Amino acid sequence: MSLLEVDDLAVHFGGVKAVDGVSFSVEEGEVFAIIGPNGAGKSTIFNLISRIYQPTHGTIRFDGQDITALKAHDIARLGIARTFQNIELFDHSTVLDNLLMGRHTHRATNFVQDILHLPSVRREERAHRRHVEEVIEFLELEAYREKRIEGLPYGVRKVIEIGRALAIGPRLILLDEPASGLSVEETQDVAFWIEDMRRDMGLTVLMVEHDMGLVAQVSDRVLAVANGRPLALGTAAEVQADRHVQAAYLGSPEAAA
Amino acid sequence: MRVVFKKSYDRDIDLHEHWLDRAKIAVLLAVMAALPFLVGNYYLAEAANTLIWALAGMGLMIAVGHTGQVSLGHAAFLAIGAYTDAGLMNAGMPFWIAFPVAGLAAGLFGAVIAIPAVRLSGIYLAIATLAVFVIVEELIIMLEPITGGVGGTMAPSISLMGISFDRYGALANFYWLVLGIVALVTWGYANLMRSPTGRSFLAVRDSEVSARSLGINVTRTKALAFGLSAGVTGLGGALMGHYIGFFNYELFSIFISINLLLVVTIGGLGFIQGAFLGAILITGMPQVIAILRDTVNASTGIDLASLPGIDTMMFSVLLIGFILFEPTGLYGRWLKIRTWFEIFPLARRDMFRRHKTYLKTERMR
């Protein structure tokens, strides 16, 4: 059984078919990439999986469970974490607090205990700190631990988003254009991190990415979409060689003629 | 500049990283506790009033400063707190029961109205809370048997274990009681903000979409924040009732709501300290204006008392000034000044350029 199964997924906004009849499945421990030209519906697929949009039809299964009817805030508890294409961090908080916010699904105390700061709260905080500290070490964010997000450079914020998703302790991580706007070196870091996530943390990675170099380097399988419809599925080389994919990116010779 | 070497996670979890900070709070509390021996009854009563405003301001700060929900209706929660407390005490309940129940009543009411209201944001939420305020005001007038209607009601004198805490008869005791309550609430508030609950408030304030993706139930979090906010303000209302002694619905006017909003905005949104600075300003301003008026009158012979509305005008100018030039409020300004000294001479002009304010309007969502 696949970890994530998307079956005949569609979402229509009025007459616009943003996603239409997309099916794919992601195996446990796989790095799966979705590519496609701008406006192809890649991020929309992410928003459907993380339940921000309600699909018009189709089902999404995670670990055998139908998650199509769940609320957006139930998704993290199942072990699905995500990042956003346009960084959505908590700007006024420190890096540490941002990562600690990622531990929300693991909290066991309620607000009354929190207000009284009972020993259980402190115990739990220590455990969260330990976990977050591992993420900080993994992503080499030590220098920024106490810094507020609003003053940090773009590349660092991008990494913190990945860190916050990792702090959830997920089984599946959705990366929405993790390398967009990053320098070549930073992109290389992201590639290594994705490798490590899979190898050392046993994570399954689903990503949307434009950088074909990165996609080819890390992903096991690639799904190409255009205009909300699937074009090709296979290894990065296979998909890049696909005639329909080339047509979608470059325009078809027939249409040009 | 002070550098704190952290050897355990506990240093981060503690409210204060450095013993000096803890010592400062202890000194402040000691001075506050010694105030009855230092100043006369007039200024002691003013200090109690300031503390009560700070308490009510902290309530509003939870909603506006830390969860990003603007409320123009917090006078309603003050009123619910004051009337519940006075009503229960008039029915024979002791203060130590009536007071927490008053906070609870205001809090529950706040949480219940929050469930539909928090779907709104920015100016729309402000208008919805204003409507709630109008409803509560009408209810107070209609529920005459309990509230005394237009005539008003009397907050009985407080006594605990045979000791009188009467606002006039035993002002020092009343002041200490208020100080104790405010200190306790402040401690609880600070605890809240270093816990998962407090972080979920900040998450909802800064980005609802990513709060959701982290598993935070936004509606429930907002309702909880609003309920806590209303509850703390309700506690402030109960004390305000005792402070005033005899009050009717007019005490809790829309201007009180606006003044509370001033407390948190001028004080510094998103800082507990801001509620205190704002309260000092709001309760201190009329005093300063009165003194100024007398001085001007004595030295130049110009009678400023004949010009009505001068207080309101000064308040407005101050608010507009703060929103335009210092959106982070008094506390934000203080942080900048402190940083300037701490890193002297390395401060740069643009250091705080990227700091933005939390007060969002329609831009949200």
Can you give a write-up of this model?
The complex is a heterodimer of chains A (257) and B (365). In chain A, 40% of the residues lie in helices and 23% in strands. By secondary structure, chain A is α/β, with parallel strands linked by helices. In chain A, the strands form 2 sheets. A 6-stranded mixed sheet of chain A has the order 6-7-8-3-9-10, with helices on both faces. In chain A, strands 2-1-4-5 form a 4-stranded antiparallel sheet, covered by helices on one side. Chain A is globular and about 70 Å long. Chain B is an all-alpha fold and 365 residues long. Chain B is 70% helix and 2% strand. Chain B is globular, with a radius of gyration of 21 Å. Chain A binds chain B through residues 50, 52, 71-77, 81-82, 84, 88-93, 96-97, 100-105, 107, 109-111, 114-117, 121-122, 124-126, 128-130, 133, 150-151, 164, 168, and chain B through 9-10, 12-13, 188-189, 191-192, 194-200, 202-203, 205-207, 209-218, 224, 228, 270, 354-356, 358. Chain B: GO terms for molecular function: branched-chain amino acid transmembrane transporter activity. Chain B: InterPro entries: ABC_transp_permease, LivM-like.
What labels would you give this structure?
heterodimer, A: 257 residues, alpha/beta, Rossmann fold, 2 domains, six-stranded mixed sheet, 11 helices, 10 strands, B: 365 residues, mainly alpha, two-stranded antiparallel sheet, 15 helices, 4 strands, globular, disordered C terminus, AAA+_ATPase (chain A), ATP-binding (chain A), Lipopolysaccharide export system ATP-binding protein LptB (chain A)
